[in-house]
């Protein structure tokens, strides 16, 4: 925090007032390119959770702090932010149709031992303009997931020409 001293012009020219200036540190990393998005899929985190926004979206700006608070409460999961204009391929791959949206992608194993795949991805978008319900509905969806952490290295996802998106490699 920096402290600046500025003359106060109200009562007397001899008075000064202190102004505080602080830099806001972002706790959730921003995805700016598709390679970064793809690399996150090979991380050790059991779940990827993305906040897809647009620089034009007022609702995205209004509820971003709630997403950051949610990220702090789920420490095992990998959280990120993505502006759909900065990285449209990530938004397309995550099947985002409206902003703000939260995309939850489980990366580990299901309780029965089978791997999660793209069909298990959850996209929480505002319904009927109810932007205030996106984060609470995402929390419910995240709490409903049961992911068994996978030991070992994860292979990169593979491009699927039929859908134009990526799919996890299954052995």
Structural class, judged by helices and strands?
Answer: alpha/beta
Can you list the strand order of the major beta sheet?
3-5-4-6-7
Compute the separation of the termini in Å. 52 Å
Order of helices and strands: EEEHEHEHEEHEE
Q: State the major sheet.
A: 5 strands, mixed
Structure description:
The chain has 171 residues and is an alpha/beta fold. The chain is built from four helices and nine strands. The chain has helices at 34-40, 58-73, 88-93, 134-144; strands spanning 2-7, 16-21, 30-31, 47-53, 78-83, 101-106, 122-124, 158-160, 165-167. The protein has a five-stranded mixed β-sheet. A two-stranded antiparallel sheet has the order 1-2. The longest helix has 16 residues, at 58-73. The radius of gyration is 20 Å and the shape is globular. It starts with a strand and ends with a strand. The relative contact order is 0.17. The model is unreliable at 1-6 and 16-25 (pLDDT under 50).
Features:
171 residues; alpha/beta; two-stranded antiparallel sheet; 23% helix; 25% strand; globular; disordered N terminus
Q: What is the secondary structure topology, with strand pairs?
A:
Elements: E1 2-7, E2 16-21, E3 30-31, H1 34-40, E4 47-53, H2 58-73, E5 78-83, H3 88-93, E6 101-106, E7 122-124, H4 134-144, E8 158-160, E9 165-167
Parallel strand pairs: 3-5, 4-5
Antiparallel strand pairs: 1-2, 4-6, 6-7, 8-9
């Amino acid at each position: 925090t920096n402290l600046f001293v500025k003359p106060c012009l109200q009562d007397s020219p001899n008075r000064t007032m202190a102004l505080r200036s602080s830099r806001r540190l972002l706790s959730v990393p921003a995805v700016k390119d598709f390679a970064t998005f793809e690399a996150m899929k090979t991380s050790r985190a059991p779940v990827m959770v993305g906040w897809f926004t647009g620089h034009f979206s007022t609702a995205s700006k209004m509820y971003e702090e709630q997403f950051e608070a949610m990220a702090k409460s789920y420490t095992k999961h990998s959280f990120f932010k993505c502006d759909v204009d900065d990285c449209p391929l990530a938004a397309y791959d995550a099947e985002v149709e409206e902003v703000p949206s939260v995309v939850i992608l489980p990366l580990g194993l299901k309780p029965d031992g089978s791997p999660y795949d793209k069909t298990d991805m959850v996209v929480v978008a505002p319904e009927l303009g109810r932007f205030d319900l996106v984060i609470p509905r995402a929390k419910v969806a995240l709490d409903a997931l049961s992911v068994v952490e996978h030991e070992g290295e994860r292979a990169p996802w593979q491009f699927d020409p039929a859908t134009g998106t990526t799919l996890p490699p299954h052995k």
